[in-house]
Amino acid sequence: MPEPATTVADPDGFSASAAEFERAARRHKLVRYGKGLAAYIVLAVFAVIAIGPFLYLLSPSFRESFELFSYPPQWIPDSFYTGNFATILNDTSYLRWGLNTMIFATAVTLITLVIDTLAGYAFARLRFPGRTALFVLILATLMIPTAVLIAPLYIMVSNLPAWTHSGVNTYPAMIIPMVASPLGVFMMRQFISTLPEALVEAARLDGASEWQIFRKIVLPLMKPAIVVLGIFTFMFQWVNFLWPLVITTTDNMKTLTVGVASLQGQFVTDWGVISAAAVMTMVPVIAIFLIFQRWFVQASMAGALKQ
Amino acid sequence: MSGVTTERPWEELTLSEAEYRRAGTRYRNRRSLRAYLFIVPYLLPFLAFLVVPTVWSIWLSFNQGGILDTAKYVGLDNWRAISSDTELTGAIKNTALYVVEAILLVFTLALFLALLLNRYRKGSNFFKLALYVPLLAPAVLVGLIWQFLTNYDFGLVNLLLNALGLDRLNILGSGTLALLTIVLAEVWRGLGFWTLYFLASLQNIPEELQDAARVDGARGLQRFRRVTLPLLRPMLLFAVVIAIIANFQVFDTVYVLTQGGPHESTSTLVWFIWKKMFQFQETGQAYAAAVLLLGIILVLTAISFWLLGARQKRVT
Amino acid sequence: MGDLGDRTNPSPAEGNEPGESRRDFLKKAVALGLAAPAAGALASSAGARPNIFVSERARPFEGVTLQFAKAPFGTDEKEVIAKLLKPFTAKTGIKIQHTIVPWNTEGAAYATNYAGPNPFDVSYQTSTDLTSLGTKGVLEVLNNKQWLYSPQYAATAAKFIPNTIKKSTYQGKLYGLPCIIGGTVMFYNKDLLAKAGITKVPTNSTELAAAARKVADAPDVWGFSVPMTDKDFTWYFHYVNIHNRGGDIISKDGKRATFLTAPVIEATQASVDLILKDKVQPPVGQYDREAGVALFKGGRIAFLQDEPLRLAVFRKEGLPFKWDFVNPVGAPGGKRTIFSTTGHWVMAAKSKNQDAAWELVKFLSSPAFANEFGAHYGWAPVRKDVNTSKGDAQVQRINKYVLSGWDGLPTGPKMAQLASIYGQAIEAAATGNKSVKAALTKAQADATRILKS
What we know:
The complex is a heterotrimer.
Chain A: H1 18-61, H2 83-91, H3 94-125, H4 131-140, H5 146-158, H6 171-175, H7 182-192, H8 197-205, H9 210-221, H10 223-238, H11 242-247, H12 256-261, H13 271-291, H14 293-302
Chain B: H1 17-60, E1 63-64, E2 72-73, H2 77-83, H3 86-119, H4 124-132, H5 139-149, H6 156-163, H7 175-204, H8 207-215, H9 220-248, H10 252-257, H11 269-279, H12 283-309
Antiparallel strand pairs in B: 1-2
Helix pairs in contact in B: 2-12, 3-7, 3-9, 4-7, 7-9, 8-9, 9-12, 11-12
Chain C: H1 2-8, H2 12-15, H3 22-48, E1 65-70, H4 77-92, E2 95-100, H5 106-113, E3 122-126, H6 127-134, H7 154-157, H8 162-168, E4 169-170, E5 173-174, E6 177-181, E7 185-189, H9 190-195, H10 205-215, E8 222-225, H11 234-244, H12 262-276, H13 289-297, E9 301-306, H14 310-317, E10 323-326, E11 338-340, E12 342-347, H15 354-365, H16 367-377, H17 393-405, E13 406-408, H18 415-430, H19 436-452
Parallel strand pairs in C: 1-2, 1-3, 8-9, 11-13
Antiparallel strand pairs in C: 3-12, 4-5, 6-12, 7-9, 7-10
Helix pairs in contact in C: 1-3, 4-16, 11-12, 18-19
């Protein structure tokens, strides 16, 4: 392309020639594409790091156990052995464990959502004596690991009178102690405090009762946060191990994590079965995760926002 | 209400001072009562199943026994016993080291990934979901995965080293490497959560500020340091506090992968508590250590608030 | 039942033969009327329990359900125990609710369960947990006239091997009936030995080191493998070396820790030398216990020290080389013993069904249960009338080793901690993290502190 005439010192114009400008623009575009490509490669690498190990574990689940430690090790099995999955489904109470876990996680999630949103609203928008102190107390209990509380909690629950139907090996005993998690209240409070005060004030002036305000105004706006908390709680309770371990002794009341742990013998561990069982426990969670992913991804970010 | 309504000019109060105060009190009481009604459904299980066991645990730290047998008050004996326990001091060191490494690593990576995801939105949903999957795995699965990854013969790490012509590593047999494995396992698990968190915080920062800085000629790193980071500070405070609280309680991975080994180099505080309580039935000492853990976390949280929180007022 | 009588009883109208007096007929009818329900009862009970004919006499513990918990030796334990307990339930009417308690959580599971109001009526406890639970008062003391030394059981009680009862008694109290003892054995790969020109199987640690050196061609082939981390209970496998040199980690009166005595130091040094000096054993942490066994199965280890229940696995899967086993090597110029902890059947002190529980414990110790159970998992018996070998020559050999030279873990509520401390010392010394002397000095300090508290 013919170069235009000499660069005139045009105070309002560019200091470079049109061709130079075009070259610069092309270079800039290349750099931009390059950066974009690099970025996506990095993201892809991390995605592989995140998901890869699970695929890695799929292999042992399709092999017979004694083959696992053969030398030299083969990672791709020559044949797909479905016996591990068959063993799990036929010889163990896996399906029953799955049902128990589903009941347990769902119940805890539903109850938690109800009481946490109510309490979160109170801490965020209602005033009452002891509000700060109580909230600090709630936060402080986050700092106690579950392992510490297990024994006293068990003694309390196992000594409940029979008319409460909440002794060892009952659903209520499994569920109720787990609904008191402080993280949910914290999260709901943070979220509600980001909702504009004006809305609530206006409703109050109009004479609406707190309950009406809560139901008609606040609750609809909280949908994303509710979905997020619901998914968090569900996932957390799905993999909860310690409490279901001590509160269930009979095989037909165990949850998945506890049941899978009981598949390990003292010395002879059927690694194929364990891998298969562990992989299977993730399936429902991933399914739920995928179903709710849209809300989840959007809204998990909203929980931290302070608009 | 016993409001005395007589014909008075509208500017004047229709009630006497005392009546006004009483009405105010009644109103506040009604309001508080309503508030309590909202809280009670949460408060009941909270008090019964969190506060009571916690208080009980604290009390147990001053006793011997109390779970299987009747408690015997021994005052500060348990505290004296654990203060001379070398495994506890080791556990505190290990946990502190772990927390520092884990938080630094995960925050750096998460921020970096969040910046990328913020900038390149296309297909970001897939990456967000992928990063999140490790969080869904139960502890036993995480343990299995990392056992396989670090295996001397066929672990991925050693296969890579072999391919690169380097010596293989005895990962779970070395103190530093084992702790590093725990760090990496937990970072791997938590990366998705923190990435999404930082992404949300970034998206909270108005674009205009970024653009203005860009137009002013600020490069990427400068923009980050001078514009982004200060605005992130409140979010960072929350993140640091939560991360400290959660990471000081690391247990699952240690329990499944190393059980405190090799030679107690991955023994963390909660692992120490667990061992004392359930392997050795030393309940008094275990609870004393638990109260110690609570104290450490409280102090660190307070420090975080002081370091990161105070300046919140200056940045608007 | 009455219906059967009606059906089998021919109606009087039809069966009335001419010439039969009415009285005769009535007699026949009554006889049939009585016999038929009885026959019906026998028939139905035979149908319900085809192998056992139980009369209508009530079973002593009808309607009682016992909570029974055990950490599993193998993945099939639920079926094995269910099968073996069937005749017990049939005879006594006691139903057993069997809970599998995973090993890695049994501490937590039992500690909480025994703290509640309805603990497991009968459970299995290892010797390390036996006294720590027992001294807290949650286990029923058994060595008294009520249980073990009751007149009816005295004859059977005499059949227990005295050392096992003695080793399980702490401060005069026996908190559980020993049910199994085991040991470790040393499996060896005959082909590898032959290839290296080794003709005699080593009998003491010096010979073992020499033989291992001949075979080892690391990193592909190792001479010797034994679990080395505290996570894999390394103390359990190394304790025998201390006993072989005539020592222990705690004094006989249970008051002092003795980590810095010659037997302990020499034993630990011998073990550590195999890794650090002779380099015939893989470094600590490179292979955990399961990986070690897998390597042996793959023909990469010459001598493997592990528990006898690998025997069943090796035989079932068939190894691609000639192999055999021998008892663990002795100390040069010292003894050659076998070490294991004991398993115990325990009863809860708070159990509401103690008599039924005692019936179960007695049955579990009896040959009717113990023969099969022991044979299935390769345990040696604790009673002279129990035979777990079932004619199997290899198991008989294991039992012979065990019964001839068994010495177990001293009893005491702190023994679990002391054993773990020793394990930590082995780990520290074997990784090169500390010298043997330094590791044992630390162990001594820790143990002394623990014994004082």
